[in-house]
Amino acid sequence: MGRKTVLKNFRIIDEGVNILGSVIAEDGIIRDVIPGPGGYSEDSGDLLSDRRIVRHIQNADMVIDGGEGTDKWGLTLLPALVDLHAHFRDPGFPEKETLESASLAAAAGGYGTVVCMANTHPVLDTREAVISLRARADALDLIDLFPAMALSRGMEGKELSGIVKLPVAGAGGVVRILSEDGKDLANSALFTAALEEARRAGVVVSVHAELGSIESQAARKSGKARAVWSRMEEINGVRRAIELGKKTGCHIHIAHVSTLEAAEMIRAAKAERGGAAGGFVLSAEVTPHHLFLSEEDAAELGSETHGLVNPPLRSALDRQALIAAVLDGTIDAIATDHAPHTRSDKEGGAAGFTGFETAFSICLTELVREDRLSLPRLASLMSGAPARILGLADRGRIVPGCRADFFVVDASANWTVDPALFRSRGKNSPCTGRELRGRVLMTIRQGRPVFVSPGF
Ligand code: DOR
Question: Is residue 18 pLDDT above 80, yes or no?
């Protein structure tokens, strides 16, 4: 018999489950989910639970009890989070982050599966580079890493990368996302060729939509604020990605949507697709920071330094439009865009925010506590849906047969963000000093704890 972990007395939440109960994991897989409290009544000594739990506890290697929380939810068990968009800076930028510090930070944030972007040094533009980074991540045994592969060689936008050699369904399942990340492929012919390769190999292209036009270039040249030209670039980029997605039939995933107009275009394209237009798949993600913060916060942090992120924090109207797009299903997933930088790089104008260790709490604070969204819907946006986008049917749910990847949250705990305590080397949080709700206490990978919060 294999290694057994019993997680008892939890509020168990995933996109389709919301019960009080226990989970039995064996050999890294969920064997059973049993409703009802696990154990005996302290007063009467009566058996409160299904007898199966008692049997499982007797021969378990590890029992984790969630019944000690004080809030109405007690402690909550959710499927480990799945992040479609993060920057690990490895290889090449150890002063910002390493594979190990990023993996520890991801685990500390409740993440079990992460896609890291290809803008490393050297760029991840061959299958071998992707497989080698994945092998290093596997050796750490903290998270499941799916490195994205760049669309063009060296991300120079001149010729296609190793995607031309990508076998169907991608390098033994490791290559699941292709992305040029921080810049769109400006050359539409090359972009179309990349989408055709992706479609042939059956992998998703994550598009950082940012395409110059005569207007945006003129606005940029004339010294107009970033908010003006970058807005046009996002709109152009999303429009072109949708057009080329329809033309090639490739699965297009729009990364970090930030404007009202982009959300509206995605909504319209999905409605049209409801009529089965062309059979192409369109999905989209938003970051926690674009849901939580706006340009006023960026100005306070320093618009061209500590508040700088790409795409920029937008207006209050955009922020509300993004929340509406999350609520009505236009946006499929929430992804961190974890982008660690050193303090001096931020002061020199590096764009991006560290994100793993605040992402879930930001979403809980902004979306769930405000009662706009249920916790199961949040689990769908951060676990179930991104797992589906990656084509990973074995995770993102708490049902028998899925991987035993979970995280434990005290959903009633408030905490103040102090980047000095982050596992990430990137301390560049836009939420420093803010109070958030929902503390990640433990992250479990295939039945084994890989992160335990001090004091839990
Ligand atoms: O703010 C950002 N930072 N946006 C990106 O697209 C890239 C990222 C980075 O690599 O720092």
Answer: yes
